[in-house]
Design goal:
Strand content: 25-35%
Structural class: alpha+beta
Shape: rod-shaped
Helix content: 25-40%
Radius of gyration: 42 Å
Order of helices and strands: HEEEEEEEHEEEEHEEEEEHH
Distance between the termini: 190 Å
Number of strands: 16
Largest sheet: 4 strands, antiparallel
Number of helices: 5
Oligomer: single chain
Length: 293
């Protein structure tokens, strides 16, 4: 009877010991927090917090409804980010990720399931942020047309030949550009959307400086993710227009002729007035008495 009680006591001690160890283990392996997808131009990072001290993190990612995978660089790691750019091969698929809190590499644990946190849904094709494009301005010879040559933004993706892909390679015909432009000395704005990377703006005021912003426009995305980042502003040069460019040679020639004629009339009038005054002050022979012989 005594041995039975002793055996039962040992079992209770064992059960409480295991429970205590599991509670302690859970406390030393806190769950990841603030799990966020950060992706720009298809460079995709998964980030979270806090920074671990005596434990590590393992990332498992998966297409929703399919089997899980692990990135070799994100297993038992003490970092709080994981680069999944090359792992998310199906750009149009929807992914999730689990961040597991585990012991440090080489340390064992009695936990059967480690604490984990699941990310939000993420699809590279519809969720990556498109950065600001660069472009060059070309002013037409007639000074009424300006052409914008936009450079398609390079992405973090490569094809089978290890050639870097641009956003044009990824989005193809879905890629469009939105141009916002205005006169340099005005606040009124106009917009134009174009599918080409070469954008022509015609019927502009001649010899007037215009300022431009460009951003990627993806109409098939949700409204809040259709526009990429705004480019830096660029303005066309302001021409130093001469008076001949402003009014034309004919108008100016006519004005000069009128001025010359007006000056001639004024000068003639002044000369005639001076002569009259001189005659009054100094009368001629008809005003003098005759000399007697």
């Amino acid at each position: 009877m005594e041995s039975y009680r002793e055996t039962r006591l040992q079992m209770l001690v064992f059960v409480f010991g295991v429970f205590f160890m599991s509670v302690c283990a859970s406390e030393t392996f806190p769950k990841a927090q603030n799990v966020t997808w950060n992706s720009i131009n298809f460079k995709t990072m998964l980030t979270w917090s806090p920074k671990p001290k005596d434990y590590s993190y393992t990332v498992e990612f998966y297409v929703i409804g399919q089997s899980r995978e692990r990135s070799p660089h994100c297993i038992r790691s003490t970092e709080t980010d994981c680069d999944l750019t090359t792992n998310l091969k199906d750009l149009k698929a929807s992914y999730k990720a689990d961040i597991l809190s585990e012991p440090l590499l080489g340390v064992t644990s009695d936990l059967i399931e480690h604490p984990s946190t699941t990310s939000e849904r993420f699809s590279p094709y519809t969720d990556t942020v498109i950065g600001r494009p660069e472009f060059k301005l070309e002013v037409g010879s007639d000074k009424r047309k300006i052409t914008l040559h936009v450079t398609d933004i390079p992405t973090a993706l490569y094809n089978e030949k290890n050639e870097r892909l641009s956003i044009r390679d990824v989005f193809k015909d879905e890629l469009q550009y939105k141009v916002i432009y205005r006169k340099a000395k005005s606040t009124g704005k106009k917009e134009k959307i174009c599918k080409s990377s070469t954008i022509e703006l015609t019927d502009l005021d001649r010899d007037v400086s215009y300022c431009f912003n460009v951003q990627v426009y993806l109409p098939l995305r949700s409204t809040d993710k259709q526009l990429g980042e705004m480019s830096h502003i660029q303005c066309s040069p302001e021409e130093n227009t001469s008076i001949f460019d402003e009014y034309g040679a004919g108008v100016i020639s006519g004005a000069i002729l009128i001025i010359i004629l007006a000056l001639s009339a004024i000068i003639t009038t002044i000369v005639m007035c001076l002569r009259r005054r001189k005659r009054v002050k100094n009368p001629g022979k008809e005003g003098r008495p005759l000399n007697h012989l």
